[in-house]
């Protein structure tokens, strides 16, 4: 067993304690006062040099023994989701309507575990530990890059994400595009409205919504022949009674794509679909795209060195993903500034069949050791 794995394993119980505290007390969004204070206090107690910012979370620095000018940035996210927990765990959320359903409590505990090891056994490289809020939809990574002292010319950035349905201990890697571009859309439909007895006289936004939804499925299937794209309608608000054809309606949803080219082809086709369907029904249709997160693009050389190291370790199974994940992550912004990588760490809890974000998802805490060890290996330099 690698020394770093042994050192991480020695912190397993300590990490479980912190993970369960965080799991019981989740906070959602970008300002996470209790979580920030808890993490900052834990790091300060370890004797580390800590910086906090209300919108940028907590960062800590560790001086390396053999710094070569390249700094290792290790990032964990801190935020929970607005989900009511249904796991029945004895350390389930005590905050109504909030749950660590994406596993960010595990990420935080892993990086705290790595910090504890590094406080006693410094890394080779200078290392910055980043505990970031607001990953889920607040672009917390941008706040970190703006407000934390990260003026680092030569650095690598690394993060991992637990995967609720992959075998515990499996590391899923991919060079280049690892996760998708993600955007949101709104479609507004408007018409004259009318009496329910005269559907032949006025266009019905409900008919338009049905046709648009069906066309989006057809077109995304067609475009996905060359490169996977997704356009999913997730919300429809049209009509409010039984005998009136509504005069307006709104659809909202998500799009995902794997390259700027396929993203723009998809958006072009969506504009066309909305215009064609609206015109045929003599309605007005407007599509608005709300820019989301860029794709997570791993540095191929960094990922290659990481995989090479991981494959030499016993008890770890490294799998290369054939397709990128259609999930999105704001760690993308770190990887736009520095080379590095994100990997998935399989963390399926016993009997769990739910994916990240489900209200009954259960993760395997034994992966805390592996997660901390991966962070330590990167801190020593790849
Ligand atoms: Zn998530
Ligand atoms: Zn997440």
Blueprint (SSEs and pairs):
Elements (H helix, E strand, L loop, with lengths): L2 H7 L2 H13 L8 H13 L3 E5 L3 E6 L8 E7 L26 H17 L6 E6 L7 H8 L7 E9 L6 E4 L2 E4 L1 E10 L3 E2 L9 H19 L6 E9 L5 E2 L2 E10 L2 H21 L3 E10 L2 E3 L1 H12 L5 E4 L11 H6 L2 E7 L20 H13 L3
Parallel strand pairs: 3-4, 3-5, 5-16, 6-15
Antiparallel strand pairs: 1-2, 2-4, 6-16, 7-14, 8-12, 8-13, 9-11, 10-12
The protein binds zinc ion (2 copies).
Quick overview of this protein structure:
With 382 residues, the chain is an alpha/beta fold. The chain has helices spanning 3-9, 12-24, 33-45, 104-120, 140-147, 205-223, 260-280, 300-311, 332-337, 367-379; strands at residues 49-53, 57-62, 71-77, 127-132, 155-163, 170-173, 176-179, 181-190, 194-195, 230-238, 244-245, 248-257, 284-293, 296-298, 317-320, 340-346. Helix 4 links the parallel strand 3 and strand 4.
């Amino acid at each position: 067993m690698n020394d770093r794995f042994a050192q991480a394993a020695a912190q397993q119980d300590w990490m479980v304690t912190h993970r369960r505290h965080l799991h019981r007390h989740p906070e959602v969004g970008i300002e996470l006062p209790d979580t920030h204070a808890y993490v900052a206090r834990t790091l300060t107690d370890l004797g580390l040099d800590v910086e906090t910012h209300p919108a940028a979370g907590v960062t800590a620095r560790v001086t390396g023994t053999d710094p070569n000018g390249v700094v290792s940035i290790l990032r964990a996210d801190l935020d929970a989701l607005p989900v009511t927990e249904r796991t029945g765990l004895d350390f389930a959320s005590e905050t109504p309507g909030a749950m660590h359903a994406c596993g960010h409590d595990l990420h935080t505990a892993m990086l705290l575990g790595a910090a504890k090891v590094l406080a006693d056994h410094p890394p080779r490289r200078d290392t910055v530990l980043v505990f970031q809020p607001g990953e889920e939809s607040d672009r917390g990574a941008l706040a970190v890059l703006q407000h934390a002292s990260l003026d680092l010319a030569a650095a690598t950035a690394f993060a991992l994400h637990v995967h609720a349905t992959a075998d515990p201990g499996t590391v899923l890697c991919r060079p280049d595009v690892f996760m998708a571009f993600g955007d949101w859309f709104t479609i507004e439909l408007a018409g004259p409205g009318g009496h329910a007895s005269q559907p032949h006289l006025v266009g019905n936004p409900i008919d338009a919504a049905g046709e648009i939804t069906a066309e989006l499925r057809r077109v995304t299937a067609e475009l996905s022949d060359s490169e996977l794209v997704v356009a999913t309608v997730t919300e429809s608000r049209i009509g409010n009674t039984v005998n009136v054809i509504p005069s307006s309606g709104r659809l909202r949803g998500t799009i995902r794509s794997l390259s700027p080219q396929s993203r723009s082809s998809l958006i072009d086709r969506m504009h066309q679909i909305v215009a064609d369907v609206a015109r045929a029904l003599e309605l007005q249709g407007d599509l608005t795209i709300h820019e989301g997160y860029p794709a997570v693009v791993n540095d191929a050389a960094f990922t290659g060195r990481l995989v090479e190291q991981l494959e030499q370790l016993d008890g770890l199974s490294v799998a290369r993903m054939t397709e990128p994940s259609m999930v999105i992550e704001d760690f993308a912004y770190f990887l736009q500034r520095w080379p590095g990588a994100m990997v998935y760490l399989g963390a399926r809890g016993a009997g769990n069949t739910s994916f990240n974000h489900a209200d009954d998802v259960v993760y395997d805490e034994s992966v805390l050791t592996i997660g901390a060890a991966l962070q330590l290996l990167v801190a020593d330099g790849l």
